[in-house]
Design a protein that fits this description.
Blueprint lengths: L3 E4 L2 E4 L2 E2 H8 L3 E5 H14 L5 E6 L6 H9 L3 E4 L2 H9 L7 E3 L6 H9 L4 E4 L2 H13 L4 E8 L21 E2 L3 H8 L5 E7 L10 H21 L3 E3 L10 H5 L16 H12 L5 E4 L3 H4 L3 E12 L4 E5 L8 H5 L5 E3 L8 E6 L8 E8 L7 E4 L20 E6 L2 E6 L4 H4 L10
Parallel strand pairs: 4-20, 5-6, 5-13, 6-7, 7-8, 8-9, 9-10, 9-11, 11-12, 12-13, 15-17
Antiparallel strand pairs: 1-2, 2-3, 4-14, 14-15, 14-19, 16-19, 17-18, 20-21
The structure holds pyridoxal-5'-phosphate.
Length: 431
């Protein structure tokens, strides 16, 4: 669902008019809807209710403490990729014992920290890492719960930068090698072989690659479980969301209409996968990121200038690629709508930021309602891989973030001050 909608031509998040938020907090501003976060979590959780399961929110998609706290209160676990993320879970009131720890480059310090917090499991990406975890666990007199990440070599059919389940990328261990790796891991001290994990890619809008991957890997899980006594099988994240309602609805007047609902739903996902997973008799872990947070967030920005060249109508806004890098990085589409809806024919526009890169754009040749200096725009579905990928490029401060619940709004990250940007820097003391 989507909690950003027009009420009397004013864009609202839930019951809060967004113009009131830009007046109060300025722009660029991220706004998150607690209602959408809750709705998406609950729908997925319910769809999977025939299985014993744990949703581990992939917090790399959005690690704001308020977002983590909202999901922790719904019972979520967390898919983490650094000691910093585990610390964030704890700071937000989440349970480290519901954290899985993934990533190809875990340091000894990070492993020791995760062990000290009794995390649920390490998702291991290589044999070298298995040996390292065993060594650190031995040193700290701990038993480390581990699951190896299998690379099922299934093409997720998504953008190359977010495909992770083929042999052309750095993740996991090849399907054919997994059983031998487990046999060797079973001989390493202080490890408990707790399960198997996979993740084939992100923003999957078709259930087929998920089905192919589970069909391929489930028999392997059954064999490994028989030998090693597993607790769980993690099928990773990757559930896609609607970014472009025009493509989904085929409606050329999409900018006038409410966002379409056509998408890979939790129901279709569960209906396809539950029958394949149930016979395993194991707990099923999921690691959704984008599905939980993507549609829950919008980036609000102010129009600074309109620049017309012979060929183009540039709408120059105060947000930039340092606030939302997805268009520059992945050629991603974000629906862009004005906070105040007006009548009139759309104008083909390029929406660009102030950074000195031609890649600093949010839309190209996009039919947009006519806007002028001082108007505000919302880039929708910016809740995942948005603010978390923010940077200080061009000495631009990180954006502020607000959480909305019904009629209430709370500032959940202050805008970074300019002095904060260089707070850890100094001038060398030689001449
Ligand atoms: C191992 C793993 N799990 C889960 C996710 C979350 O993916 P998504 O946000 O597409 O659900 C990722 C994303 O990169 C990942 O690498």
């Amino acid at each position: 669902m989507h909690s950003f909608r027009y009420v009397q031509n004013q864009l609202q998040c839930e019951s809060v008019p967004l113009t009131s938020l830009v007046k109060k907090y300025g722009t660029p501003l991220y706004v998150y809807s607690q209602e959408t976060l809750t709705d998406h979590f609950t729908k997925l959780d319910q769809a999977l209710s025939p299985l014993e399961h744990l949703i581990c929110f992939a917090m790399k998609s959005n690690s704001n403490l308020a977002v983590i706290n909202t999901l922790a209160n719904l019972g979520s676990g967390f898919d983490t990729v650094s000691a910093g993320e585990i610390q964030r879970v704890i700071a937000a009131g989440g349970d480290p014992r519901k954290c899985v720890f993934a990533g190809v480059g875990k340091t000894e310090e990070e492993i020791a920290y995760a062990l000290s917090q009794d995390i649920y499991c390490f998702n291991v990406e290589s044999e070298a890492e298995l040996k390292r975890i065993s060594k650190v666990a031995l040193k700290h007199k701990k038993i480390a719960p581990v699951a190896v990440r299998v690379n099922p070599n299934v093409d997720a059919g998504t953008h190359a930068k977010i495909t992770t389940g083929t042999y052309a990328n750095k993740f996991g261990i090849a399907f054919e090698q997994i059983e031998a790796v487990y046999a060797r891991a079973a001989r390493l001290p202080n490890l408990r072989l707790r399960g198997l994990q996979m993740h084939i890619g992100s923003q999957l809008t078709d259930v087929k690659p998920f089905r192919l991957a589970v069909e391929k890997v489930a028999p392997l899980v059954a064999r490994l479980n028989a030998k090693h006594g597993f607790d769980f099988f993690s099928i990773g994240g990757g559930l896609g969301i609607v970014y472009n309602p025009a493509l989904e609805s085929g409606d050329p007047q999409w900018w006038k209409t409410a966002p379409a609902r056509k998408i890979l739903t939790p129901e279709t996902y569960a209906k396809t996968l539950v029958p394949l997973l149930q016979p395993l008799g194991l707990k099923i872990l999921l690691e959704p990121g984008r599905f939980l947070t993507g549609n829950a967030g919008a980036l609000l920005t102010r129009v600074e200038y309109i620049k017309r060249t012979g060929k183009k109508n540039f709408v120059i806004v105060d947000a930039a690629m340092n606030d939302l890098i997805r268009p520059a990085f992945y050629d991603s589409y974000h629906q862009i709508v004005p906070l105040k809806r007006s009548k009139g024919a759309p104008i083909s526009s390029d929406v660009v930021g102030p950074i000195c890169e031609s890649g600093d754009y949010f839309a190209k040749d996009r039919p947009l309602p006519k806007v002028g200096e001082g108007d505000y725009l919302a880039l929708l579905s910016a809740g995942a891989y948005g603010s978390v990928m923010g940077s200080n490029y061009n000495s631009r401060s990180l954006a502020a973030e607000v959480l909305v619940k019904g009629k209430k709004s709370a500032l959940v990250r202050k805008r970074q001050t300019t002095a904060d940007i260089w707070a850890n820097e100094s001038v060398a003391n030689w001449k």
